[in-house]
Amino acid sequence: MRAWSWIASFSNSNWRFGLHAGLIALAAALLATLLDPLLGHGISRLSLGGFNFDSLNLGKTLVTFGRLWLVASVFAFVAVKSVGAIEWITNGLARLRPGAVAGEFNPSRRTFFQYAAVLAGGFPFLAATYGFAAGRLRYTIERVDVPVANLPPELDGLRIAQLSDIHIGDYMPPHEIARAVDMANDLQPDIAFVTGDFVSSAGDPLDVCITELSRLRAPLGVWGCNGNHEIYAGVEEDAERLFREKGMRLLRAQSAVVEHNGGRFNLLGVDYQRDHMTSGEDSGPQSMLREIGPLVRRDMPNILLSHNPNSFHRAAELGIELSLAGHTHGGQVKVEIVDHNVSPARLMTPFVAGLYHLPMNGHGGTATGSSGPQKAALYVNRGLGTIGFPVRIGVPPEITLLTLRRA
Fold first, then answer.
1. Would you tell me the crossing angle of helices 107-133 and 58-96 to the nearest 10 degrees?
2. Which residues, at least 6 apart from 103, have a Cβ–Cβ distance to it below 8 Å?
């Protein structure tokens, strides 16, 4: 708006027309990059006169720049306006002090806030650049001991590698998936789980993603479940077939008994469980996990692979001891304000990332050697890829090594 007004002050009509047209074109291009997934990724695959821009990644570069600029400029706008609000408050307080002169202007205060506005407005652009260039590629290994109710002594120490939210595509090439798989293999897990979102949208190379995941090595096998993006892309059955062809297994409202060192656990898996995306009597936590209720075992611990962490409430009610999920990406951006973590993921779930507990079976029984109720556990993996904006700030991509412990 300020640029439009500034251009309008030009005396030369040709300059005004040209610059205004350029400003409109820039706004249209930014809007198009935001809507690129809805346009079949036409912008990121630009071609002109038979020459494919994608070979030089010019379309992808335009989309990347547009998305980074959009998210950074929103935060920059808020930051600059916040500095302006602070300046307005301090000016008001200065006028109220004893001996203040009406209409008095303090140039040093004005200069200070001008510099503060520049710094505050520039920081989101620096943060977005870091989040794209480095933050989203800085894979971290999280080692977590998980206390599991009803865990047999034979399963104490079972090592689980978990990957989630791969989102193969422009910002997650196959060699990056291979790097994550190699890191997971170095952990020497007993079993490996992949909790959904192999792709972002239709046309992404699902077969390439699953081929890379098939390099995971674990004596008890590689298992997985579908995420919401498999539903959006219409590839749920394809993912199940490719898993089977590669010697892995994708569980879709199914269960399997897994044995280790003479102990056994019941492994369950479901497709993405809808909650807030539905309405009516089929919505809410009670609508979730209906298809696996009869598959829950009472003679051994249960482990559930469910992409959506919001199924945890229902899983705890069903008596499922451990749930593994993804979906949130940890919000991709996290800011700590007065000892509280602020993340966009909190808008859709209270289970953003990490380990959570709820009383099992609603109120729970009594755990052996404990006076408290048995607890169901949930671990939410931050995922590897990104969605929407190719940025991670304060939320590094994650490869998890979970070690089961007797609760």
1. 150
2. none
Determine the Cα–Cα distance for residues 344 and 379; give it in Å rounded to an integer. Answer: 19
DSSP assignment, residue 199? B
Give yes or no for a contact between 272 and 226, defined as CB atoms under 8 angstroms apart.
yes
User: pLDDT, tens digit, for every residue of 278-323?
Assistant: 444 455 566 799 999 999 999 999 999 999 999 999 999 999 999 9
Q: What is the pLDDT of residue 36?
A: 67
Say whether pLDDT at 239 is over 90.
yes
**Domain locations along the chain:** 35-133, 140-406
Name residues whose C-beta falls within 8 Å of residue 61's C-beta, 6 or more positions apart in sequence. none
49 — pLDDT class (breaks 50, 70, 90): very low
- In whole angstroms, what is the distance from residue 360 CA to residue 347 CA? 25
140-406 folds as Purple Acid Phosphatase; chain A, domain 2 (3.60.21)
pLDDT: which is higher, 287 or 263 = 263
Separation of alpha carbons 143 and 161, rounded Å? 9
**CA dist., res. 214 & res. 242, Å (int):** 10
Cα(275)–Cα(277) distance, rounded to whole angstroms?
5
Residue pair 302/321 in contact by the 8 Å Cβ criterion = yes
Whole-number Å distance between alpha carbons of 323 and 376: 8
Query: Are 190 and 160 within 8 A, CB to CB?
Result: yes
Closest CA to 164 of 173, 153, 177: 177
State pLDDT tens for residues 121-158.
998 889 888 888 888 999 999 999 999 999 999 999 99
In this predicted structure, the answer to whether residue 242 has a pLDDT above a threshold of 50 is yes
Integer angstrom CA distances of residue 218 from 97, 181, 214, 322: 71, 11, 11, 20
- The Cα 256–Cα 254 span in angstroms is 7
Q: In what helix (H) or strand (E) does residue 183 lie, and over which residues does it extend?
A: helix 174-186
Q: Would you say residue 28 has pLDDT above 70? A: yes
CA 279 vs CA 284, 287, 361: distances in Å: 8, 10, 25
